[in-house]
From TrEMBL:
Taxonomic lineage from the root: Eukaryota, Fungi, Dikarya, Basidiomycota, Agaricomycotina
Bilayer-crossing regions: none
Protein name per UniProt: P-loop containing nucleoside triphosphate hydrolase protein
Polar residues bias: start-end ranges: 16-39
Biological process (GO), any one: cellular response to heat
AAA+ ATPase domain boundaries: 193-338
Listed InterPro entries: AAA+_ATPase (IPR003593), ATPase_dyneun-rel_AAA (IPR011704), ClpA/B (IPR001270), ClpA_ClpB (IPR050130), P-loop_NTPase (IPR027417)
Gene Ontology annotations for the cellular component aspect, listed alphabetically: cytoplasm
Length: 436
């Protein structure tokens, strides 16, 4: 049998390739067209389902996993507009704030407002009137340039889930901006180093809330130490955790660090300056500088631990600085330059109290400042809405926006800056009971 010539073999291969690759033109175009239409017309359902579940944790989980964008459309509306206009959602306020925290564009509400839809919602007719000031505050914050920029510092890092703090905490936007800056720089280090932060300011300004939410949002273990009970170094390392977002545990702080060696975790030292003797803090020097904890038989690697201390040190300085800055204008937000200046003034004050050896190992000090008038309104609105859980008929616990604002104005007249959130909570509760 005669072998085919090279020319014949090449011809046959070309014919086979042509036969394999050739597809009727009409079939190829139709298939491609259908595929293209499907890819743009079939929405990702995960965010819609999460919102419809009325479960904030589900919404946060979908957004954190990247399964959906906070700006996804839900039918003809944005996810944010859909949430605010959905009268069936009991967790509407928290879901909306979660969407904003993860980057939902509030300008999507502007178009709806022009059409007469969101105008009613923001005006208090589509959701409880007591929430009106809270949503207005959150939307204004979302539109602020420094709010959007702050979140960019931790995007792409292990700390990105902390963006949820931006609307979970009312006020302290400059503290959050500085926090995100520090975390962004820390995440870029090639070798892990201890991260030590002090939150300082008046009572009720959000220090403990922010500290305790840190590990919860990062989804890492947290151990909270009540420093008011510490009478010795032994008490510190043998202390049990007592935080609202932590699983009950019988582990001591020493055991917690051993169990989480080399892992990301959080240790909160609440009311740091109230330990009986500042010398009891000296045992923190090695963990804070070297990233090592002496467990007796061996040294434990604690370089990835985030240490957060809360303190009232410098409250008078912070209050005096704020008064000198705003004068009679209680609604003037603090600028970045003013906040940096306040940080520089506060650090020596803390050093004089805790000692230079401790302060030299602190990565950053975050002053927590008094609330502005707008922030007070938003906080009072949130408190009022919370008081009405279980009493609302779906139209709100207050008959009108005007009635709600009158109650809030009465509460704000009793606001005590030194007590912060707690004074607003007490005043709103008192006046709400009178109305209800």
């Amino acid at each position: 049998m005669t072998s085919p010539t090279p020319a014949c073999r090449n011809s046959r291969r070309a014919s086979q390739r042509s036969s394999t690759l050739s597809v009727p033109r009409s079939t190829s175009v139709a298939s491609t067209s259908r595929s293209h239409v499907t890819s743009i017309s079939t929405p990702r359902p995960t965010l819609l389902f999460a919102i419809a579940s009325d479960d904030v944790s589900q919404v946060r989980r979908v957004l954190e996993a990247g399964d959906a964008s906070p700006n996804d459309q839900v039918g003809p509306q944005s996810a944010l507009a859909f949430t605010l206009m959905n009268e069936q959602l009991k967790q509407k306020d928290k879901i909306a704030r979660t969407l904003l925290a993860y980057g939902a564009d509030p300008s999507s509400l502007d178009a709806s407002e022009e059409e007469g839809g969101m105008g009613s919602a923001i005006g208090g007719l589509r959701f409880a009137p007591e929430l009106d000031n809270l949503f207005r505050y959150c939307i204004a914050m979302a539109k602020a340039a420094h709010t959007r920029q702050a979140a960019a510092y931790i995007q792409g890092s292990d700390f990105r889930s902390l963006t949820g703090l931006r609307f979970d905490l009312i006020g302290q936007d400059r503290a959050l901006e500085q926090l995100f800056r520090v975390l962004g720089m820390h995440a870029q280090q090639s070798t892990p180093n201890p991260l030590v932060m002090l939150y300082c300011g008046p009572s009720g300004s959000g220090k403990s809330h922010l500290a305790r939410k840190f590990g919860y949002l990062l989804d890492v273990p947290t151990h909270t130490v009540n420093m008011t009970t510490m009478q010795s170094t032994h008490d510190l390392w043998q202390s049990h955790s007592m935080g609202p977002y932590e699983e009950p545990s019988k582990r001591t702080l020493a055991e917690f660090l051993i169990d989480n060696e080399g892992k990301r975790c959080v240790v909160v030292l609440d009311e740091l300056e109230k330990c009986e003797n500042e010398r009891n803090l000296w045992s923190l020097l090695a963990p804070w500088e070297l990233g090592e904890f002496d467990a007796g038989s061996r040294h434990i690697d604690v370089r990835k631990v985030v240490w957060i201390g809360t303190s009232n040190i410098g409250t008078d300085l912070i209050s005096e600085y704020d008064v000198s800055r705003v004068g009679a204008d209680a609604d003037l937000p603090m600028s970045r330059q003013e906040y940096v200046e306040l940080m520089a003034l506060l650090r020596p004050r803390i050093s004089a109290r805790l000692g230079a050896s401790i302060m030299s190992r602190v990565t950053t000090v975050l002053p927590f400042v008094p609330f502005t008038r707008a922030e007070q309104f938003a906080i009072a609105s949130e408190v009022l809405a919370g008081l009405g859980k279980g009493y609302s008929t779906g139209q709100g616990i207050i008959a009108s926006k005007e009635a709600g604002e009158k109650l809030i104005e009465q509460a704000l007249a009793e606001y005590v800056p030194a007590e912060g959130f707690r004074s607003l909570q007490r005043a709103v509760s008192t006046h709400w009971l009178d109305v209800f």
